[in-house]
Design brief:
Elements (H helix, E strand, L loop, with lengths): L2 H19 L1 H6 E4 L13 H15 L2 H5 L8 E4 L6 H11 L3 E6 H9 L5 H14 L3 E6 L18 H17 L4 E6 L17 E4 L6 H18 L9 H5 L7 H20 L9 H17 L10
Parallel strand pairs: 2-5, 2-6, 3-4, 4-5
Antiparallel strand pairs: 1-3
Helix pairs in contact: 3-5, 7-8, 9-11, 11-12
């Protein structure tokens, strides 16, 4: 077994033991012990990817910072609409640095801790212990502006903000203080996110994640269509006029465009499962599915963005 495989197994075992002992963390976190998301597999977002690659050197070549008389940022805050690729960037950072990736669903963790009958102090203590024991991690605090998150049904002014902020800042501070882990936060609500998260010594480097329309979205859709064909092992698409498709819904986020793409793929799979032989996916297929999406969005107010996965 290689050193890397030993590290992966150790991180996975330690994290599993931790989440078993702290149920809120088990419900609100996921660990990908050996992530495979590359920066090349993310469409566009050139500036954001460059920023993340710069942060990667904090783990892979920290001496480079010293040669230029500086030091790596304590943490990074990704800012961008839902579904624009923030999580993919964080996962790609973990891949680049050969670290296990832990996503913390902040809104879910907050609700679970509010109902945990005063176990926050115990949780923080065990959190500090696991960070000391676990091999280097990339820690992703997903949606720091928890009170606005659509996962909680919209704004939640009823939440006890003071104790929650103390709790979250303890988690972030202890992760940064360890000096070993890469720490990233994200928000889709930069106008209202609490400034304490972004002060020097915390998530001090701000990175805008804003796809350039239409070019970045076209690149993302081409990547995902190529991945689908690689999984299928045969061609699935005609030559697609992606820019024509995108004109049908110019305010749609990258994550939702990927959802539209997969909706068309599933429709073709259903036709074949029914005994017919579907044609390759065409521009018309994609524009038709986009029209369905637009109609659904008019009838049901969607939280926006989907997941760029």
């Amino acid at each position: 077994m290689s050193d890397r495989q030993i590290q992966i197994e150790r991180a996975q075992n330690l994290w599993s033991s931790f989440t078993r002992s702290m149920e809120p963390m088990a419900r609100a976190t996921t660990m990908t012990s050996d992530p495979k998301q590359s920066f090349d597999g993310i469409g566009g977002l050139t500036t954001a990817k460059d920023e993340m690659l710069t942060y990667a050197y904090a783990a892979t070549r920290p001496e480079t910072y010293a040669k230029w008389g500086t030091f790596p940022p304590s943490g990074v805050l990704l800012i961008g609409a839902s579904g624009c690729g923030k999580r993919m960037l964080a996962t790609a950072l973990a891949t680049q640095t050969a670290t296990s990736f832990v996503r913390v669903d902040v809104p879910k963790l907050v609700v679970d801790m509010v109902h945990s009958n005063g176990k926050a102090a115990e949780f923080v203590q065990k959190w500090g212990q696991i960070l000391e024991e676990t091999p280097q991690l990339t820690l992703f605090f997903d949606e720091l502006e928890f009170s606005q998150a659509h996962d909680l049904g919209g704004p939640r002014p009823d939440l006890p903000l003071g104790p929650i902020m103390d709790f979250l800042l303890e988690l972030i501070d202890s992760a940064i203080a360890s000096g070993r882990h890469l720490v990233i936060g994200s928000t889709a609500y930069p106008d209202v996110v609490r400034q304490a998260f972004a002060r020097p010594g915390r998530l001090e480097r701000f990175v805008e994640v804003t796809p350039i329309f239409p070019d970045d979205v076209v690149t993302a859709l081409e990547i995902h269509s190529n991945l689908a064909e690689a999984r299928a092992g045969h061609p699935l698409f005609e030559s697609i006029d992606w820019k024509h498709v995108l004109k049908q819904s110019e305010d749609t986020g990258t994550g939702d465009w990927v959802r539209i793409l997969h909706a068309v793929l599933r429709r073709k799979a259903r036709i074949e499962a029914g005994g017919d032989q579907p044609d390759l996916i065409s521009t018309a297929d994609l524009t038709s599915e986009t029209a369905r999406f637009n109609q659904a969005r008019r009838r049901i107010k969607l939280p926006g963005g989907g997941n760029y996965v």
